[in-house]
């Protein structure tokens, strides 16, 4: 039995134990204070001891990705990366221009869509070809002549300029040629994450792999006719500029007429779907572009502007950042959330129904594309959801007070501030 010392009932062992604990706590106070100071300093340009990185770091990359280096406290692990810069993609350079791609092989989350950037010099041709999937395109610089032929043999020839877009449905043969004075650069989006720009159906490749006697029989001519067919694909190659648009349209439309629904859409002639103090959005889908089976939104955010909290219930979203810089947080079921920064030329991807926002964090306008592998654009905003749910019920969930809830607009803002 342990001997008691004194009226308070403390044993010598107990006293010594408690004394040791107090001494350890006292000794640790400076360390705790330093740690607390480090945490307190974390909001001051992240200079706290607990946030220093004395080891190796990629300074230029970390400076461009602050939301990954110092994530918001609201972030929670488990959400996979949803960004891939085109700058990381291998660039295939040819005499007539260059191309590079971002597919599911680069960005594993991007299962339903892939993207290609392409540059054509003045006269540069992306040779006559076709794909199994649909090709949606947006011109980011310059001008191009595009051609196609549909299933009924009807022709299509049009000139596309910066800010315009086009669609070539799957299986439709087509071509693209850069115009003067400096050719063009454009974005292509395909409704297949596994798409490969370097494995398409090419005219030259097909003819080279078809016996010449079969070609001669098919066209009722001699084998000599095909002696100059290239022995390898042309892919992207330089040639003279095309004839005038009117001349080439007349030639292509002879005997069958033009396609009934144009494959081109001139967004410069379109009034914005929604305009607010924070920016604007143009929605292009089958309701105003009958030929398309891929929906899109062209969003412009002013400095500080926000593409409001929302999600898309019908399909995944593939993004391309045209101008400016910003950040996006994506939330997924199970309490996972991640914030990433985006810059010109970056690709973003959000799976179906995952809520997110996009915020302009720069000092100039930000322009980005939202593209969906579906003919119809759909979204649901957080504000619209709360505004059309009984206010008492919502307040019982989030405790904001019903006065706040009554002030939420009954129609989605799309871009804020309104």
Top keywords for this entry?
about 425 residues, alpha+beta, Jelly Rolls, 2 domains, twelve-stranded antiparallel beta sheet, globular, disordered N terminus
Estimate the global geometry from the Cα principal axes: globular
Tell me the number of strands. Answer: 25
For this structure, what is the CATH class of the largest domain?
Mainly Beta
CATH topology heading of the largest domain:
Jelly Rolls
Oligomerization category of the chains in this entry = single chain
Rg calculated over all Cα atoms: 30 Å
Return the structural class: alpha+beta
Strand content: 25-35%
Task: Please count the helical segments.
Answer: 9
Overall number of structural domains: 2
Fraction of residues in helix: 10-25%
Average pLDDT, rounded to a whole number, is 91
Measured between the Cα atoms of the first and last residue, the distance is 77 Å
CATH H-level superfamily title of the largest domain: Jelly Rolls
Low-confidence segments, given as residue ranges, are 1-43
Biggest pleated-sheet summary:
12 strands, antiparallel
Q: Which architecture of the largest domain would the CATH scheme give at its second level?
A: Sandwich
Write a structural description.
With 418 residues, the protein is of the alpha+beta class. The chain folds into two domains: 89-265, Jelly Rolls, CATH 2.60.120; 270-416, Sandwich (Jelly Rolls), CATH 2.60.120. 20% of the residues lie in helices and 32% in strands. Strands 2, 3, 4, 5, 6, 7, 8, 9, 10, 11, 12 and 13 form a twelve-stranded antiparallel β-sheet that branches. Strands 1-21-18-23-16-15-14 form a seven-stranded antiparallel β-sheet, with no helix packed on it. Strands 17, 19, 20, 22, 24 and 25 form a six-stranded antiparallel β-sheet that branches. The longest helix is centred in the N-terminal third of the chain and has 30 residues, at 12-41.
């Amino acid at each position: 039995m342990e001997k008691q010392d004194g009226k308070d009932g403390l044993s010598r062992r107990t006293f010594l134990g408690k004394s040791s604990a107090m001494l350890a706590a006292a000794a640790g106070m400076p360390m705790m204070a330093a740690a607390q100071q480090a945490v307190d300093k974390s909001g001051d340009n992240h200079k706290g001891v607990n946030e220093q990185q004395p080891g190796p770091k990629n300074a230029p990359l970390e400076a461009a990705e602050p939301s990954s280096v110092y994530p918001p406290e609201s972030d929670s692990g488990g959400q996979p990366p949803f960004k891939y810069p085109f700058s990381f993609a291998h660039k295939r350079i040819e005499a007539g221009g260059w191309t590079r791609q971002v597919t599911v092989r680069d960005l594993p989350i991007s299962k339903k869509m892939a993207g290609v950037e392409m540059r054509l010099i003045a006269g540069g041709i992306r040779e006559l070809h076709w794909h199994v999937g649909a090709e949606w395109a947006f011109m980011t610089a310059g001008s191009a002549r595009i051609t196609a032929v549909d299933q009924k043999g009807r022709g299509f020839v049009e000139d596309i300029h910066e800010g315009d877009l086009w669609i070539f449905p799957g299986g439709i043969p087509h071509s693209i040629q850069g115009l003067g004075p400096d050719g063009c650069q454009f974005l292509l989006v395909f409704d297949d994450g596994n798409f490969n720009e370097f494995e398409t159906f090419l005219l030259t490749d097909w003819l080279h792999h078809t016996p010449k006697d079969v070609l001669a029989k098919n066209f009722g001519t001699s084998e000599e006719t095909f002696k100059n067919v290239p022995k390898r694909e042309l892919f992207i190659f330089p040639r003279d500029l095309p004839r005038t648009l009117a001349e080439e349209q007349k030639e292509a439309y002879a005997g069958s007429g033009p396609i009934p629904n144009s494959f081109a859409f001139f967004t410069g002639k379109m009034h914005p779907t929604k305009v607010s103090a924070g920016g604007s959005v143009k929605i292009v889908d089958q309701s105003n572009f009958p030929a398309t089976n891929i929906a899109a939104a062209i969003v412009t955010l002013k400095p500080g502007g926000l593409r409001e909290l929302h999600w898309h219930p019908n399909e995944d979203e593939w993004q391309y950042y045209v101008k400016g810089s910003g950040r996006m947080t994506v939330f997924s079921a199970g309490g996972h959330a991640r914030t990433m920064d985006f810059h010109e030329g970056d690709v973003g991807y959000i799976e179906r129904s995952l809520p997110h926002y996009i915020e302009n964090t720069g000092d100039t306008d930000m322009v980005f594309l939202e593209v969906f592998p579906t003919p119809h654009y759909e979204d649901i905003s957080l504000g619209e959801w709360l505004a059309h749910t009984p206010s008492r019920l919502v307040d019982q969930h989030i405790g904001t007070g019903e006065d706040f809830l009554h002030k939420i607009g009954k129609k989605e803002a799309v871009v804020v501030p309104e």
